Amino acid sequence: MASAEKGTTVKGRQTKERIITETMKLINQKGYEQTTLVDICQAADVSNGAFYHYFNSKQDILLGYLEKESQDLDNYYNALKKDSYIDVLYSVISYQVTYYIIKGQDSISNLFSTMLLSKRNFFFLEDYVGMRILRDCFENGQKNGEFRTDIDFGSMAYSIFSIIYMVVSSWCMDEGSFDLFTMMSERIVPLVNVYTEKPSHSDK
Fold first, then answer.
1. Are 114 and 62 in contact (CB under 8 A)?
2. What global pTM score does this model have?
């Protein structure tokens, strides 16, 4: 019989979640580079061997944290009616903006800083939930004629996610000097309008 996947048992899931939780606490307290494997194992009350059973590195813990945080977004997306992928796209973006506001600027700033220090491009990993959802929106929106097909759906998803990251980063650095919903709309709606335009002969 094939062995169970890492963390699939109740005890395994609890251990994995405890490692993620304690690691993020340490990173918020000490910083990413200053947080060591010894610190993590002590805080999570696991051995080095147990740590490597669930994760290969601190980067993997960050990815695990992002996946855990993104589960609600994934569930929300799956529950949406897919009558219009334009409407779905805006609903998903609104959901994400609400998430950032609820989490607060300090929490998001710490997360973004940690991701940058880890030197891994988490946001644009194709298997990352947020990116996967955007790609799915544009791919299926192209199939039903809502989005133009002369632009690669992956490029459209990448551009929208880049804007989200840029606007949220500015919001954090400017300490909330602007309304996040308003700024996001001002930056994203014009681009989505371009993606929904029918290409003219001169565009071909």
1. yes
2. 0.77
